[in-house]
Automatic annotation (TrEMBL):
GO terms for cellular component: cytosol. One of its GO terms (biological process) is glycine biosynthetic process from serine. Belongs to the SHMT family. The lineage of its organism: Bacteria, Bacillati, Actinomycetota, Actinomycetes, Jiangellales. It comes from Phytoactinopolyspora halotolerans. This is Serine hydroxymethyltransferase.
Length: 424
């Protein structure tokens, strides 16, 4: 970090040091959190520009502030790229994040008290799909479908039966801990049968969809919401993609319904990420994410780990650590000390509490962004097994020896695979 009279280090050395520490941590650990990734240097550069100085309520050509000649072009470029990458009629790139994007869909399509349907949070759904602790669960009559207790997969017959019984006006498919392919055509058929608007929340798999490594909801879902980070490898923001009949309602719901001015520096970063997603190498990257996840899942299963649904079709793996004799939270904490970042996670029908659940959630997008492949996934599985096995022994010395050993090997591998955006 260069020191100049107006640099961050000169103005606020305490914060500069903390940011430097985070850069070091990101270089020296293996990021296995399914909702995280590394952005490119170009995306980082776009988000750290003078665009943050400009306020732009409204839409291109219809702003409430002057001086929008450049901002209008930037937002239009982002919209056009989103439509081209995903093949949609309409795109709104202004939502601040995924949850506000989903709230905008509610505002555009239903009224308070209406029945809405989504995957239950403990099954892998998202808070904003009508879960009780979310505003969406308090303002709407929310009903939820589940996964099979044995299969760990969505039973579309159960979804259809529930939809026929409850007649929801809005149906969400997608979620935060779904390791299997989402059957968009089947959801669309059910939504048509009951007269519901179908929303595909592809926040986790947007990069896989863009890269052709997961089927697209386009042509099946009326509205698609997504964050722009995770597998899409952009800045922390969101988009709403829609068919033409819902375009105006979505735009009005985002602004003025829920937000003021968009974050123009984020819009620029989204535009850059979409440009990157349109390149041939992005497709190779997306398919490698899946190949890495499949290999990691197979290696973990071979080492006695229990995988929810038995495996994965995408970037995400959900482990039930019960057969290993440990819980998710202490396992995640021990792995973190060893340089392997994961997050503890509820599993379907989890007997434990959400803040101390049975599971771990893993993702391969960030490791793939560093250039790692199947052979490195086998190493990751070995390291995870070493730490978790030591933890199950209940002996702290054994745990510390395993953590120290794995940490040393992680340090070696991170030195061989640079971090996009940080190491050139």
């Amino acid at each position: 970090m260069t020191t100049t009279p107006n640099s961050l280090r000169a103005v606020d050395p305490e914060l500069a040091e903390l940011i430097n520490a985070e850069e070091t941590r990101q270089r020296d650990t293996l990021k296995l959190i399914a909702s995280e990734n590394y952005v490119s240097a170009a995306v980082l550069q776009a988000t750290g520009t003078v665009l943050t100085n400009k306020y732009s309520e409204g839409y291109a050509g219809r702003r409430y502030y002057e001086g929008q000649q450049v901002i209008d072009q930037i937002e239009t470029v982002a919209i056009d790229r989103a439509k081209a990458v995903f093949g949609t009629d309409h795109a709104n790139v202004q939502p601040y994040s995924g949850s506000p994007a989903n709230l905008a869909v509610y505002l555009a399509t239903v009224n308070p008290g209406d029945t809405v349907m989504g995957m239950a949070l403990p099954m892998g759904g998202h808070l904003t799909h009508g879960w009780s602790v979310s505003a969406t669960g308090k303002w709407f009559n929310a009903v939820h479908y589940e996964v099979g207790k044995e299969s760990g997969r969505v039973d579309m017959d159960q979804v259809r039966d529930l939809a026929r019984k409850e007649r929801p006006k809005l149906i969400f498919c997608g979620g935060t801990a779904i390791p299997r392919t989402i059957d968009f055509p089947a959801f669309a058929e059910i939504a048509r049968e009951v007269g519901a608007v179908l929303v595909a929340d592809i926040a986790h798999i947007a990069g896989l969809v863009a890269g052709g490594a997961h089927p697209s909801p386009v042509g099946h879902a009326d509205i698609i919401t997504t964050t722009t980070h995770k597998t899409l490898r952009g800045p922390r923001g969101a988009m709403i993609l829609a068919t033409e009949p819902y375009a105006k309602a979505i735009d009005k719901a985002v602004f003025p319904g829920l937000q003021g001015g968009p974050h123009n520096h984020t819009t620029a970063g989204i535009a850059v990420a979409l440009h990157e997603a349109a390149q041939p190498e992005f497709s190779r990257y997306a398919r490698q994410i899946v190949a890495n996840a499949v290999t990691l899942a197979e290696e973990l299963a071979g080492r006695g780990f229990e995988l929810v649904s038995g495996g994965t079709d995408n970037h995400l793996i959900l482990l039930d650590l019960t057969p290993k004799g440990v819980a998710g939270k202490p396992a995640a904490q021990a792995l973190d000390r060893a340089g392997l970042e994961t997050n503890y996670n509820t599993i379907p029908y989890d007997p434990r509490k959400p803040f101390d659940p049975s599971g771990l959630r893993l993702g391969t997008a960030a490791l793939t962004s560093r250039g790692m492949g199947e052979s490195e996934m086998r190493e990751v599985a070995r390291w995870m097994d070493e730490v978790v096995t030591a933890l199950a022994s209940g002996d702290e010395d054994t745990v510390e020896k395993a953590v120290s050993h794995v940490r040393g090997e992680v340090n070696e591998i991170t030195g061989r695979f640079p971090v996009p955006g940080l190491d050139r």
